[in-house]
Amino acid sequence: MARKSLTILAVGELVLGEQKGKSFLSLAAPVLRSGDVVIGQGEIVFTSRGASTYVEMYHPYPGCPPSNMRALADAGFNVITLAGNHVWDSGSPGIEDTITGFGKYNIATAGAGMNIDEARKPAIIERNGTRIGFLSYNCIGPMGSWATPAKPGCAWVRVITAYEMNMPNPGGQPEIYTFAEPRSLGMMIDDVQKLRRLCDVLVVALHKGIMGSPDKLAMYDQQVSYAAIDAGADLILGHHAHGLKGIELYKGKTIFHGLGRFVPAMAPETEEQINTRVYLDAPIPGSDPTKNRAIIAKCVIENKKISQVSYIPCLVNAHRQPEVLKHDQRGQEVADFMNRITFIEGLNTQYQWQGDDVLICPGKTS
Fold this sequence. Notes:
Blueprint: E1 6-16, H1 21-25, H2 29-32, E2 37-42, H3 68-74, E3 79-81, H4 91-104, E4 108-110, E5 112-113, H5 116-120, E6 123-127, E7 130-138, E8 153-154, E9 159-164, E10 175-180, H6 182-196, E11 201-208, H7 219-231, E12 235-240, E13 247-250, E14 253-256, E15 261-265, H8 268-278, E16 292-302, E17 305-316, E18 322-324, H9 329-344, E19 349-354, E20 357-362
Parallel strand pairs: 1-2, 1-15, 2-3, 3-4, 7-11, 11-12, 12-14
Antiparallel strand pairs: 1-16, 5-8, 6-7, 9-10, 13-14, 16-17, 17-18, 17-20, 19-20
């Protein structure tokens, strides 16, 4: 007898840095609640007692109001990934309060802990006899955010950047190479292989990507994603770049290189600064760089395997609320943007509408 299908919904960065957290999710909540498993990236910790830290960060953020964790629970979230560059902004209290607080709402967390063993520990959720496992890693630093055997922080993959002059032109534009340091990449691979034996569907969240360049992937974007799939991952969820990136298929598995910022609720002046720095830095020709586009990744699970992957287009309005779009002019604008950046990034996917979802299909390979 066939088992009932399950639906995973996943979004990118959640920044609920202001009160009234529920209002920021009010437009998207009806769709999110339709998922059996709903995942988001906790970009900023939830605490009211953390001390501000400085660890090579240009702008550490204060903790989000702990009351906003209820807003995430009410909106349907039951998994929050925490490995990211702001996880140490409030120090040890921020990490402790965030993990403990989400536990009170029966929201599982992955990617952070009071030491490196806890940070690498997966979250596992069971639905209708299907076990879904989650791991979360920070690929961008700073090193001060990383957990160690004696320090709280996040799970991590260290990425090294090298600049190489390929032309006899001192001071000219260099070629940029990025690659994962083998030992830390091996730690991630080991975690995935161990989790593979414990679950039916395995999801890896990677905090990665070049900010301000939606049409560019770094070398490590694919290297780390491919390594996770080679080790046994079924789905890769990317975030950090504050905007959308393309979607790729590798060995039949889907890689969302960047889901976009889903809730950018922070102080208005900070929001304005970030929009200026990120979106106006390197706009795609023919697109509006001031629009905060996002998508909801949607995966259907049948017989304990992912059978279909799609995305739901979204646009964050002036009140910083993500609006779920339909197959209309506004939804098509996001779909057109995804088509452009996927083509420019040279990825092997194509998209087609199915109702109000956009299916991810194999594209032509060169």
